[in-house]
Structure formats: structure tokens, C-alpha cells
Amino acid sequence: MIGVIFNHGLYTLRIIKRKRMTVKINLFPKPAVYLAIAVYLTLTFFALGAGNQVLSATVREDRYFETVGASSLFITGLLFFFGFLRARRLDQSRNLKWIKQLVYLGLAVIFVFGAGEEISWGQRIFNIKTPTALETTNVQDELNLHNLAAVEKSDLFNADRMFDMFWFGFTIMIPVVGLSFKSVKQFIERIMPIVPLALGFLFLYNYALAKIAKAVFDAGYTYNVIPFAQAVQEIKESNYAILFVLVGLFALWDLNNTRNESTHEMASASFK
Fold first, then answer.
1. Are 204 and 39 in contact (CB under 8 A)?
2. What Rg, from alpha-carbon coordinates, does the chain have?
3. Helix and strand tally (H, E) in the chain?
């Protein structure tokens, strides 16, 4: 009997220790984190007025902003794939619905696909020739789908519009609905993470910065290699990708927190 109590005590201590570790790495309630990110987002758009040398090193294809954007999307995809694996283990202990696993796996696929599209699936890196079928249908003569003429010329379903709808729904609409309706929040949390609204506001801030940058830097923009609108778009998309890394980190933290709480509850119930 004493051995059972002693072993249970050690098990409980491990749970408490693990829970404390989770709290220590939770950066999302800290205002300094959001402030630092907001400062970075602001500074990136000043590249538009920093001269042609800076623009050449940052906004051109395969340079700073595109590399950071593609890498960030790929990292986000990996984070959601790890979330998928973690959700599978949670499903065994908490009887979560299989749809949560599909959501995490689907998001992983979307972000990895976005990373591939961002760098045209390594076309310029590996010197891959554009297939003949795409030469006449892709407006930039690249190995990707988001620059297809049918997509680019669409007023509603072009890639930029769909991406804006995605981040707005994921980081703004769902959190707002969750805050407004407790029962809806409890249901959503069972199938996907609800992003902190403060993080969603950073997405809105980046969107607003792009609009402001177009008004402020347009007249002084002289870099003819990349059109001004495309340069703004490259910076904006890169910033969105970085923000999505934070979304992926939050999703993992949320799953870890859920798992620790579940284990703690199971330990408490067995002690009783």
C-alpha cells in the first residue's frame, strides 16, 4: 500500500513538473512578444524606401523576404504535422473525434504546399525548365499553380484573395466567435486550436501596414526590376508566413497543455 502511494506521488510530481515546464515556454500572453513582432513588421516595409541595393537583396525572387516566407510556411507545416501526431495520442486517451486529426494534417499539407508554391517548387534553385503546358498558362512562366492565368485574372478566387480570406477566418473570425459564444468555443476547441485574438490583430496590423506602405513609398520607389505592387506583396506575404509560425507554435502548446491537464485529471481521479 505504501509502495503504491509512493509511486503515485512520484507520478504526480512528474505531472506537476511537466505542467510547470509548459507554462514556462508559453510566450503568448506576454505583451513584449507581440510588441517585438509588431516592430519587426513595421521595419520590413521601410525596405521599400531604402534604395535599390537593399531592394535587390530583399524583394527579388529567392532573396530575403521570399526565402523567409517559404521557410516559415514550411516550418509551420511541420509544426502542424507534429500537432497531428500529438492529436493521435490525445485521441487514444481523451476519445477526441478523428476530425481533429484531419484538421491538423490538412493544415500541415496546406502550409507545406504554400511553401512549395512560394519558391515555385525549387524551379530556380534546381534550374528546372517550365513545362510546356505551363508556359502559355502561367503569367510569370513559373512552375506553380497560383500564377496560372485563370487564377490571377479571377476577381474572387485569385490566390491573394483566398489567402486573405484564410488568415482572416482562422485568426480573427473564429477567435471572435469563440469569445462571443462559450458553447461554440467548446465545440471548436475539440477540433482545432483557437488562435489568441492578439495574434490575429498582428495579421490585421500587417495588412494595414501594406496599405499604408503603398501610399507612403510609391512615389519614391525606383527599383524597376520588381514592380512596386509586387514588392509590397512580397513583404506582406513574408510577414504573414512568420506570423503563421507563431500560430503553429500556439497549436502545439495548446495540445501539450490539453495533454498535461488530461493526465493531471486522470492522476487525481486515480488517487481518489
1. no
2. 22
3. 12, 0
The sign of the dihedral angle between the CA atoms of 78, 262, 173, 45 is negative
Mean pLDDT by 10 residues, the chain (272 residues): 41 42 52 92 96 94 92 97 87 64 94 89 78 75 72 75 93 95 89 92 97 95 93 96 96 78 46 47
Instruction: Supply the pTM of this predicted model.
Output: 0.82
Which residue in the block uniquely carries the three cell numbers 507545406? 112
Q: Report the SS3 class of residue 62.
A: coil
Cell of 81: 504535422
Domain limits, the chain: 50-265
Per-residue model confidence (pLDDT) at position 158: 80
Cβ–Cβ under 8 Å, residues 72 and 240: no
- Give the dihedral sign, CA 33/86/170/60: positive
Q: What one-character-per-residue DSSP string does 165-214 give?
A: HHHHIIIIIHHHHHHH-HHHHHHHHTTS----HHHHHHHHHHHHHHHHHH
CA distances from 155 to 64, 159, 233 (A): 29, 10, 17
Here the cell at position 192 is 482545432
126 close to 120: Cβ distance less than 8 angstroms: no
